[in-house]
Specification:
Length: 244
């Protein structure tokens, strides 16, 4: 691969490790459309920059599989909405106006988001369409979101990045209102529960979404975070083994 193409390819490797989680070179190669050897070269260069690391997983049969993942240093490659300034502003707001004043600010933000999402989510649409529209809106805000239909008929709304993570760590009200906001904009007859939480140590935030009124469909949905599969099967997300 030409030197001019090396940097974009390495950025794509980082993006896949961010959105898919720990992966083998073989699985990354399948998505990128290049050879596993080329992917390994990119991974070795990224490891030299301190952006990725690996672990060898033992398997029942064959040689151990080498699994690659992002290091904490790699998180700086993904958007953060002026973290330090945001945290300072939140602390100043709390000091000046107290907890009640800070809650009013969070509520005002949630109200603005509610209006934005309501304008983008089709009224009366099937749950899959609503989730696709919501994921697209969240991706526009930097959350790298996507929705997939699961084998049990439920949906999974995934956010692979949090552009306000520093602010959310200081003020848990953002995460609380986020969950309430999703429940409201998806409408009645829908249950939304958080399964993974970045602030609790997970690599992403994920929400299980279930229609309780029988108004769901099984249509295939493609969103910025990745496509779902026809018939309800989830897209590939887990690591795959490969010989070292």
């Amino acid at each position: 691969m030409a030197a001019a193409d090396a940097r974009p390819a390495r950025e794509r490797v980082l993006f896949l490790l961010k959105t898919r989680g720990p992966s083998s070179a073989a699985s990354l190669a399948g998505v990128l459309g290049i050879t596993p050897m080329a992917v390994r070269q990119h991974l070795q260069a990224l490891a030299g920059d301190g952006l990725v690391s690996f672990r060898d997983e033992r398997r029942k049969v064959g040689r151990p599989a080498r699994i690659w993942e992002l290091t904490p240093a790699a998180m700086g490659r993904f958007p953060d909405t002026h973290a330090e300034l945001t945290v300072d502003l939140l602390r100043s707001l709390k000091a000046a106006f107290g907890e009640e004043g800070l809650e009013r600010v969070i509520a005002a933000r949630a109200k603005a988001q509610r209006q934005t999402y309501a304008a983008r989510i089709p009224a009366g649409a099937a749950l899959g369409e609503k989730l696709a529209a919501l994921a697209a809106a969240r991706s526009d805000e930097g959350y790298m979101a996507g929705s997939t239909r699961e084998a049990d008929g439920s949906w999974l709304l995934v956010e692979n990045h949090c552009p306000i993570c520093a602010a959310a760590a200081v003020c848990q009200g953002f995460c609380r209102d986020e969950l309430a906001l999703f429940r409201e904009v998806l409408g009645p007859g829908v249950v939304v529960e958080r399964e993974d939480h970045l602030l609790a140590g997970a690599r992403r935030c994920a929400y299980r979404v279930v229609a309780t009124d029988g108004g769901d469909d099984a249509a295939t949905t493609t969103t910025p975070g990745g496509p779902s599969r026809p018939g309800g099967a989830p897209g590939p997300a887990g690591p795959e083994g490969e010989p070292r």
